[in-house]
């Protein structure tokens, strides 16, 4: 028996407060790519959250997964680029992709199938126990995503204090429910936000390709409002890649309802990128930094430095 070709991932419901109680455990919210690993007869596939096969993009992770002692398995996790201080950083993922995935860490947090058994039907507590036993001392590049029970808000505050993106809280007594948002709760730290790329400015001085990215957000009524500009955090290689993608999408009108100041005039509006990446309470922002299209420090005793 082989695992399914692809399983829709279980999703999270965004909340303002992390739940607490004996039925909840809490994990760090990683800042990487959600990725499933399908292993069948020694062959490994890496599948995105929409089912795309990205195996060829990350051969180092694929090779590490072949060392797990299984005939077949279906695993759920997050593929991350990790800084030396232990913080995952999605802005480093492109650099890792250019190096064919070298140095990435695949944090595994769920097990859905193992050697012909549908583990997804078991409660999370048992799935996590089996996953930990399967990984044991995992090969470099693979790691178990730890969790902690107890006060969810205390855990979130600790995570935020380390500069992390947020936490994911999960019910211990529930099975894996593809596409469901009822039993996994996501709470974010408020020092970060996700915005729409609504336009860009011309480069100035010695800066090549393009100037700042001009950002917007959707209000409660769905209107697109201007939020500010971001110019830091982009290498020359990133600028070149952005320019190549944005140039064909140019239109003459400005999509945000509230116009930008004259110095932030929206010269272009990339239609294909003008979509919300996630909810935000943000209004006009200053001193923004580009972190990529969407950190991981160990905030508690169960976390450890990434295995490379």
Structural write-up:
This protein has 308 residues and is of the alpha+beta class. It is built from five helices and 14 strands. A hairpin with a 5-residue loop joins strand 12 (213-218) and strand 13. The model is unreliable at 262-308 (pLDDT under 50). The strands form three sheets. A five-stranded mixed sheet has the order 1-10-9-2-8. Strands 4-3-5-6-7 form a five-stranded mixed sheet. It folds into three domains: 10-28 and 149-191, Dna Ligase, domain 1; 31-144, D-amino Acid Aminotransferase, Chain A, domain 1, CATH 3.30.470; 196-289, OB fold (Dihydrolipoamide Acetyltransferase, E2P), CATH 2.40.50.
Please give the structural blueprint.
Layout: E1 13-15, E2 21-28, E3 33-40, E4 43-48, H1 59-65, E5 72-80, H2 93-98, E6 105-114, H3 124-135, E7 142-144, E8 148-150, H4 152-161, E9 166-171, E10 184-188, E11 196-200, E12 213-218, E13 224-232, H5 236-246, E14 288-289
Parallel strand pairs: 1-10, 6-7, 13-14
Antiparallel strand pairs: 2-8, 2-9, 3-4, 3-5, 5-6, 9-10, 11-12, 12-13
CATH architecture of the largest domain: 2-Layer Sandwich
Task: Name the structural class.
Answer: alpha+beta
Please mark out the parts with pLDDT under 50 across 5 or more consecutive residues, or reply none.
Answer: 262-308
What is the percentage of strand-forming residues?
25-35%
By CATH, the topology of the largest domain is: D-amino Acid Aminotransferase, Chain A, domain 1
Rg, please?
21 Å
Spatial strand arrangement across the major sheet: 1-10-9-2-8
> What is the helical fraction, as a range of percent?
10-25%
Order of helices and strands: EEEEHEHEHEEHEEEEEHE
- Overall 3D shape: globular
Average of per-residue pLDDT values:
79
Number of contiguous helices: 5
Name of the top-level CATH class of the largest domain: Alpha Beta
According to DSSP, the number of beta strands is 14
Q: Main beta sheet: strand number and arrangement?
A: 5 strands, mixed
CATH homologous superfamily of the largest domain?
A: DNA ligase/mRNA capping enzyme
